[in-house]
Amino acid sequence: MITSTDIAGSPVEPFDFVLFGGSGDLSMRKLLPALYFRHCANQLPADGRIICAARQELDTDGFRALMDAESKIHIDEKDFMEDHWLSFIERVHYLRIDVTVQSDYEKLKSMLAGREEHVRVFYLSVAPSLFNKITEGVNAAGLITPLSRVALEKPLGRDEASADVINDELAAVFKESQIFRIDHYLGKEAVQNLMALRFGNSLFEPLWRNERISDVQITIAESLGVDTRGRFYDQTGALRDMVQNHLLQLLVILAMEPPVSVDPDAVRDEKIKVLRALKPLVGRDAIENTVRGQYKAGAYDEGTVPGYLENEDIPNDSTTETFVALKAEIGSWRWEGVPFYLRTGKRLEKKQTEIIINFKKVPHSIFETADGLNEPNQLIIRLQPEEKIRMRVYVKAWGDAITLQPVHLNLDFNDVFQKRRMIAYERLIVDVLRGNPVLFMRRDEVSAAWAWVDPIQQAWEHFQVEPKAYRAGSMGPSAASNLIHRDGFAWYEE
Ligand code: NDP
Ligand code: BG6
Predict the structure, then answer these.
(1) Which-ligand-closest: CA of 27?
(2) Same domain for 131 and 229?
(3) At 56, which CATH number?
(4) Is 246 noted as a catalytic residue in this protein?
(5) pLDDT confidence of 396, banded at 50, 70, 90?
(6) Distance CA 96, CA 184 (A)
């Protein structure tokens, strides 16, 4: 059970948080619960309003009832307090608006009138095709004040060119300091902890390089399928949905040089150097170093699930990938020769996000090992569902002979932090309200990520690479294992 002082932070300034797409999936599942938690933590001032905007014919009472039905269920029972929920929904107002109709913005204008001194956030939880309509709409209605900010959901565009168009349109009405491009992985405590682990300890830095590390693996596995997001997903695919943003952000945080401070630009300057140092995967290189997959029906303990093509929103000849594995390399003194294997997929065996750092073997081994294997040291950083760090080291096995046995040094964050860890959107929303951009993507970062991903997509299209089938409940197509085996490595599986 949380208490109102749990994970408290200093209160934010009075605000109007205009949530475009307030009735959508993301709002109901993540954004409104995140705001609820910040409300419980007493971080939202009394004069902080949440204005949910969508076309559905509802009034504020009707929308609050919708939240009761569709958002409340996404708050863990043990963290739910009825009295806090009731006071939270008092903050929420509904605005019926079609964002493509300019005259509709007059309704928003009258709701915001007289509150120009408040922080004003336009949060765009809508399809990217509506981003420009909304920024133009609020601009033409004269709603952008000096304290206004705009927050946008990923994916920002579908390639570098379309991201540039969106960014240009944004830049026409907002300053860069007012733009908050969201990759919710950056809001995860576990992801921030990667930075803490690397730069808060002197232990790792001398080891964090090609002389000591043989390969790095990053896996974001999901057990869910595309479910109700079929239409969006089929236009997008795993490369654009997960690799361009979440996976590359994890890679960049692992590989970046130590920034001089936590100043937003100091951190982002280092991150972009890694993105620019990624060796391009173009043409045949892209084909040889990537694997596309698509899930078929399969079974979990809870029962069987249909395949991707059986989803009613997916054309039955769709070749969109629901799985990607690839080998990336960074051309830099620190990382030359170290492969970074990335993989992500829907309907995999389990939900798990994990980073594996495999160190090199000892140069000359003088011991036998009890199991006959001589695996190198390994650092396992589990980011979700639970946060754990494990380090495989060797000790002397029990008995007469000096034989080695692997053991794990274990750090389970649940043992260290008894309190609930914040969900990613809590931190991100508070940072938008405060105007702190450190956990958001700068324009050049988004472009650099697309610039690396685009040639892969183009190669798939050019060579008409069909996705390889994999069974729901497995860890992806066998080609993903071959990709890593051919270099003499194997995916870490627990
Ligand atoms: P949904 O389709 O569930 O929601 C879209 C929302 O936009 C609805 O509230 C809809 O309400 C509203 N809307 C659509 N057209 C208009 C219009 N013309 N005028 C006003 N409101 C409109 O989408 P999601 O919530 O899934 O996604 C929202 C954004 O977040 C997308 O950019 C997506 O890529 C991104 N995202 C989503 C994630 C998720 O897990 N869902 C994860 C990460 C990013 P109505 O139809 O009543 O107008
Ligand atoms: C989103 C993707 O950005 O991240 C989804 O659009 C995916 O397809 C989700 O399911 C995964 O996020 P998390 O926080 O559940 O790992």
Answers:
(1) 1
(2) no
(3) 3.40.50.720
(4) yes
(5) confident
(6) 27
